[in-house]
Amino acid sequence: MIRTDTRAEGIDLGAGEVVAAGGERLGYDSLVVATGGKPLRPPVTGLDADGVHGVHRLADGADIRAAIAAGAKRAVVLGGGYIGLEMAEVLQIRGLEVTVVLADPLPMGQLDDDMGERVCAAMCAMGIDVQPNQPVREIELGPDGAVRAVRTDEAAYDADLVVLGLGMGPETTLAREAGLALGTTGAIDVAHTQRSRSHPEVFAAGDCAQTFHRITGEAIHVALGTHANKQGRVAGSVIGGRAARFAGVLGTAMTKVGDLEVARTGLCTTQAEEAGYDYRTELIESSTRAGYFPGAAPIHVKILTERGSGLLIGAQIVGGPGSGKRIDVFATAIWAGMTAETLAGSDLSYAPPFSPTYDPVVVAARVASRIEQG
Amino acid sequence: MIRTDTRAEGIDLGAGEVVAAGGERLGYDSLVVATGGKPLRPPVTGLDADGVHGVHRLADGADIRAAIAAGAKRAVVLGGGYIGLEMAEVLQIRGLEVTVVLADPLPMGQLDDDMGERVCAAMCAMGIDVQPNQPVREIELGPDGAVRAVRTDEAAYDADLVVLGLGMGPETTLAREAGLALGTTGAIDVAHTQRSRSHPEVFAAGDCAQTFHRITGEAIHVALGTHANKQGRVAGSVIGGRAARFAGVLGTAMTKVGDLEVARTGLCTTQAEEAGYDYRTELIESSTRAGYFPGAAPIHVKILTERGSGLLIGAQIVGGPGSGKRIDVFATAIWAGMTAETLAGSDLSYAPPFSPTYDPVVVAARVASRIEQG
């Protein structure tokens, strides 16, 4: 039975009932909490003003299009994750002047600096103004109540359109008020079966649920549709009586800035250090296609391996068309627990329109394994 | 010491000497035979006539360009492997009328029929005339001694340019005459160290050497630069005193026909049957990008898994731009011994310009693992 005529206003964990609008109570044997995520917002006022938009709901996209159609000329994008980057690119293509204001030193915080710098350079080359190290302090409104500028400690950036691309947190209001245990990330604490740790008859899946890193085992929160979908399937399977476990996340992510493709998986150096790994990094430059083939473009591949074991623990790619999806080979290799040496010996495809004789993935793995051999 | 002033005319295995032109004898402790491959040729006369070209040496490419510049109008390509397909496409683009004559029912013999048919349809859609099931019987020459037509049992195909794309065999003349043992494939029989099985002080690497299939362990001959390079490194490492083993091949291959990308790895159904596998196949259709994203194109992914274990043993991909390199994920997963279920749970990248939420690789793996679960 699908009920679209009401909404949950509370969960009575003791009684095993959901309290719907108007006080109706719906009993359950198993409950799935799938309340999703909520956009993170900076601690400033003015976020509800005309001209300030999140990028969460379908309606946000329609609102931004309408703002452009109504003549918006200067956009400020807050945040340099993939949503921020994609919005900046699109607004630039639509003819607006675009400034990206970052709290961090570089966009794409889950890249190492030497890779993030390439992304930043590509943004600048497109004509996007990147302003790093500047947490937003104030949304300035004009006399009409609409946004006029974004102020940081360093400057005020004129804007008639502000886009919030600051990431997503878990939406846990219902769960928290009901007394479901939240994890260290603030998301609902679940086992690998997606069962809530505090109430086994309650499951949580998707952006509202905490998950764990495949490599380190640490609790993390990653708001992404791929994980959400898999977690929902795990919860459904378990409720239906079939054994299932969510297998963790590597933090694989991909985006593009113009023709520059950007992707990462596993641990970056900051994460490897925090997790206490003794690791090596290798950064290679290769070509997306055979060097003589029209359209060949540079590709940079950086990989992290555990010192001694040679196990792959992370990879980052920045390069021309055809670069980014190569991250999936690393994601698969890390998932399987492969060493750089094993990956270097593997039989990847070669055809001049798509790859040099040695795919850049293999080149990076080979360099890392050569060094491991001493 | 590099000697470019002479060539090997024989190997005296008993004395441990290479016999050079003019009778000079060069002693060795270790010898590497890297005599490469030779193009396979059909058993007909006329192959040395003007207008008939292999695609082996750099000079072949120059000769074909010269023939086009001199006014060649009608080309017949013999063979439907990736070299044949690539030559047919290029000649078509250069404005020639192109007929591809196949001994087999379909191009790309290492694809299953249902995938090969898609390749064949793409060739026809480009205006290439494909003539299957017709071994060549005769190269007809004109009164000037140049090629005039290619004759099969069914018809004669006019041609002023004939391109041989029939694959490569091992060049083993020196090895055979010296008494080095050849394997069942006709290539030099070597161990995983690239040592000749008959003479351990002699190594062979590259297109002249036999190799083995990673999955079945069976002896095969695959003429491809990626393997050749790796085998040379193994031989060099072993001679230099470091343990090294060539790890086998999956038969990964990739090409394109116009915008259609074609790739395969591991076992196709014919190979799986020959190897005695109890296997399942799954064929899925998905999209190269998020369905709503401009440029999204269909992609077909077919995978073979071992019944019971669920181990991945083969994959084939035919689809639009961005499809082919996805084969590397399967090649890596098969290399690592992953099941379809494990791959289905993995964390592959998602971004609308590059992938639907579930990458087509994961969709195929999921379907296969669902069926395995019963």
TrEMBL record, chains A, B:
<feature type="domain" description="FAD/NAD(P)-binding">
    <location>
        <begin position="4"/>
        <end position="214"/>
    </location>
</feature>
<feature type="domain" description="Pyridine nucleotide-disulphide oxidoreductase dimerisation">
    <location>
        <begin position="254"/>
        <end position="356"/>
    </location>
</feature>
<comment type="similarity">
    <text>Belongs to the class-III pyridine nucleotide-disulfide oxidoreductase family.</text>
</comment>
<protein>
    <submittedName>
        <fullName>FAD-dependent oxidoreductase</fullName>
    </submittedName>
</protein>
<dbReference type="InterPro" id="IPR016156">
    <property type="entry name" value="FAD/NAD-linked_Rdtase_dimer_sf"/>
</dbReference>
<dbReference type="InterPro" id="IPR050260">
    <property type="entry name" value="FAD-bd_OxRdtase"/>
</dbReference>
<keyword id="KW-0560">Oxidoreductase</keyword>
<dbReference type="InterPro" id="IPR023753">
    <property type="entry name" value="FAD/NAD-binding_dom"/>
</dbReference>
<keyword id="KW-0285">Flavoprotein</keyword>
<dbReference type="InterPro" id="IPR004099">
    <property type="entry name" value="Pyr_nucl-diS_OxRdtase_dimer"/>
</dbReference>
<keyword id="KW-0274">FAD</keyword>
<dbReference type="Pfam" id="PF07992">
    <property type="entry name" value="Pyr_redox_2"/>
</dbReference>
<keyword id="KW-0676">Redox-active center</keyword>
<dbReference type="Pfam" id="PF02852">
    <property type="entry name" value="Pyr_redox_dim"/>
</dbReference>
<dbReference type="InterPro" id="IPR036188">
    <property type="entry name" value="FAD/NAD-bd_sf"/>
</dbReference>
